[in-house]
Design goal:
The complex is a heterodimer of chains A (105) and B (414). Chain A has 105 residues and is mainly alpha-helical. Chain A has helices spanning 30-36, 44-60, 66-72, 77-83, 88-95, and strands at residues 3-6, 9-12. Chain A has a two-stranded antiparallel sheet. In chain A, helix 2 packs across helix 5. Chain A starts with a strand and ends in a 10-residue tail after the last helix. By secondary structure, chain B is an alpha/beta fold. Chain B has helices at residues 12-24, 133-144, 165-179, 201-213, 302-320, 373-390; strands at 3-8, 30-36, 40-42, 61-63, 72-76, 79-83, 88-91, 96-98, 101-104, 109-110, 127-128, 149-155, 186-191, 217-219, 224-228, 233-236, 241-243, 246-250, 253-254, 272-273, 287-289, 294-295, 333-340, 343-349, 358-360, 366-368. Classes of the chains: A mainly alpha (105), B alpha/beta (414).
């Protein structure tokens, strides 16, 4: 498995950069992950979304999709795309150190 | 006294569960009631064919109550809310229906108004959907008078019912304009928020290959944020644009509105969280879910409602005996994918196994993932089968709820 070093800690990630062990994540790692994912620098709004994703994941075992984020985070889908242009749910999940949202089939 | 099973929704899943329960339990043991807001049962797979003049709209709709066996009560009324604590459903009329077991089978509904501009200027003039009867019938005329320009076919976001249907529409549109000798004047683009033609890799490659072969442009990772009917363009959330003269879009889906007023039962989008194997609601052990309304990681499709129905009936029997639900749904899904020119291909998969080549339901059977006239015939013959075998709740020899492994080429999975 590939690994990355964020904030001086080695963590295991999958082929797309998503954490395999979400418990390894700390807030200090987020800026470096964001930079790698082409997002940033992280503003207060970015952080709101990242923390919302992480909390939703810890509550439900799964990160929300873009549509659910738009309905529940208080930030519209349009704004979410401005913050995370290449896919808000995917990018925010990666920066929040949680698995890729499974989405729907 | 007979115990009461209340089934919300008289569509595919609700009807077959009610009828299968009726065959299994005498009326003295179990009172079965089906609730629906109207008495029109629509054969939804038929909608795909209506715009092309391949299915008369009238044939696709029948009475809901006449699909139910004698001794199943049909109660017409719209659900206001469900209270799982007191085990009762309240209708908008104020009627209160108590239950011992509740089956949520109210499916998914279209919410085109959730997408900016979709129902704005140009709606049903140059922007259509074929996912409901008014849309499908109005599209018939629009296609007939379309003789040049850019046709865009796609969906806004998942989940949608029958995720292959937009692809089938694109394939049939290619066939339709070729038959009319106009194909060289019509550009067809398939628009998807996914990164390929379909969700699962082997099928995505195969269906993407078919699009290319038919000269249909594939636009991927396009998250439609706005439909500008007047200006004739789709605009994605990240600012890209796709121009069109005629757009056929599948709108966003949600669960029924009453779930928003039924604490704990539905999620943010109105789908019902449940154990993905037992189909028992996470809100209450007395509630089971079948069909498009279930929040399970497989397609929303009639075949799924059918296979889930077997499991739900078994688990209701367990629950009535005071036992935990023993039957397990494996995510089994199959669909005939119409590819035009009188051919179709069949895909068959479950939670763990993606669609693979081979044969279904065993080594001798219909070819999988390969176009054939046989599968086209299967798709068309499914309609009488649906009304006369599936809905009445008969068992079909050789067709099991669990996905058959025999006949599949697992070495193609890589």
């Amino acid at each position: 498995m590939p690994s990355e070093i964020y904030a001086g800690v080695t963590v295991e990630v999958d082929g797309e950069g998503f954490f395999l062990h979400p418990e390894q994540w700390t807030e200090a790692m987020a800026p470096a992950i964001a930079a790698q994912a082409g997002v940033g620098p992280l503003t207060e709004d970015h952080w709101r979304v990242v923390k919302f994703m992480r909390t939703a994941y810890l509550d439900k075992g799964e990160g929300p999709t873009v549509r659910v984020l738009g309905k529940t985070s208080g930030i519209s889908i349009k704004e979410l795309y401005e913050l995370f242009p290449k896919g808000p749910a995917k990018l925010a999940a990666r920066i929040a150190g949680i698995p890729k949202p499974r989405g729907c089939i | 006294m007979a115990r009461r099973v209340l089934v919300l929704g008289g569509g595919t899943g609700g009807t077959l569960v009610a009828n299968r329960l009726r065959r299994r339990f005498p009326a003295s043991e179990l009172a079965i009631t089906v609730v629906d807001g109207d008495d029109r049962h629509l054969y939804q797979p038929g909608l795909l064919f209506v715009p092309f003049g391949l299915a008369p709209a009238r044939r696709l709709v029948r009475s809901r109550h006449a699909r139910l066996l004698p001794d199943v009560t049909f109660h017409q009324g719209r659900v206001a809310h469900v209270d799982v604590e007191t085990r009762a459903v309240t209708l908008e009329s104020g009627d209160r229906l108590p239950y011992d077991v509740l089956v949520v089978a109210t499916g998914a509904r279209l919410v085109p108004e959730e997408t900016e501009g979709l129902v704005g200027p140009g709606w049903r003039e140059k922007v259509f959907t074929f996912y409901d009867m008014p849309g499908a019938t109005s599209l018939t005329g629009a296609l007939a008078s379309f003789d040049r320009g850019r046709l865009v076919v796609g969906f806004v976001d998942l989940p949608i019912k029958c995720p292959v249907a937009p692809l089938e529409f694109a394939f049939l549109a290619d066939w339709y304009f070729r038959r009319r000798g106009l194909r060289h004047r019509v550009d067809i683009t398939f628009v998807t928020p996914l990164d390929g033609a379909f969700t699962k890799p082997v099928a995505s490659a195969a269906l993407g290959g078919l699009l290319a072969e038919k000269g249909i442009t594939l636009a991927t990772e396009f998250a439609t944020g706005e439909v500008d009917g007047a200006g004739g363009r789709l605009v994605s959330y990240d600012g890209r644009e796709i121009p069109f003269d005629l757009a056929v879009m599948v709108p966003l889906h949600e669960g029924p509105a009453y779930l928003a007023h039924s604490p704990g039962l539905g999620d943010e989008l109105g789908f019902v969280p449940c154990d993905i194997h037992s189909l028992q609601s996470k809100a209450s052990p007395d509630v089971f879910v079948v069909g498009d309304g279930a929040d399970v990681p497989t397609s929303k499709a009639g075949s799924v409602a059918h296979f889930e129905g077997d499991v739900v009936v078994e688990n209701i029997a367990c629950h009535l005996r005071g036992e935990p639900p023993l039957a397990q749904f494996d995510g089994h899904t199959n669909c005939f994918v119409e590819t035009g020119f009188g051919r179709a291909l069949l895909v068959d998969f479950n939670y763990d196994t993606q669609p693979l080549p081979g044969h279904y339901p065993g080594p001798v059977g219909l070819p999988l993932m390969r176009r054939s006239r046989l599968c086209h015939a299967g798709k068309r013959l499914f309609e009488p089968f649906y009304w006369h075998v599936l809905l009445p709740g008969y068992d079909v020899p050789g067709i099991t709820s669990a996905m058959p492994r025999a006949g599949k080429e697992f070495d193609k999975e890589a």
